[in-house]
Amino acid sequence: MVIAAFIGGVLVGIAGDHFYLFHRRRPPLGGQFVTRRIVDHLDRELHLSSQQKTDVQRVIDQHHARIDAVMNGIQPQVRGELDAANAEIDKILTPQQREQFSKMRMRMRGARRHGPPPPPF
Length: 121
Description:
Layout: H1 2-24, H2 31-46, H3 50-92, H4 95-114
């Protein structure tokens, strides 16, 4: 029961990590690297046998693929909500503020691709 809860927590952590990386617009690390890192961490903490490591790797790989599929489905919805929020903010601003806000959003899009994460919106 404890191991199942721990693995469940790890999987939720993976989902959270993917959401965080998506939200920050950083490209996610290769899936194999991420799952291997998780298994290595579990091994250090729990001292897994080689069979347990193999089994845990298989479980995490299976769920990692499902989590990726869910996140890929959510991303357009999140983008849509951000776009809707930006449109509502745009309506509140003066023409000068609107122009400045537009420039800020363009800089943020570039920063997402090339540098540190921008603040929301």
